[in-house]
Amino acid sequence: MPEILLAACALVLVLEGLMPLLAPRTWRDVFRRVTELSDGQLRFVGLISILIGSTILIVLYA
Known about the structure:
Strand content: under 5%
Oligomer: single chain
């Protein structure tokens, strides 16, 4: 189980690194817009991310 968690974290780092590597200007603009969101909007984005990720895991492993 720890190996799977470590592999998942490594995959997140790889995926998160693709945008700044391939399109740094776009990534910077998106990052700037995200920092201007209110706390409520950021919480909503986090909630949606959790729901999508959980749904994908359920579909893959159920």
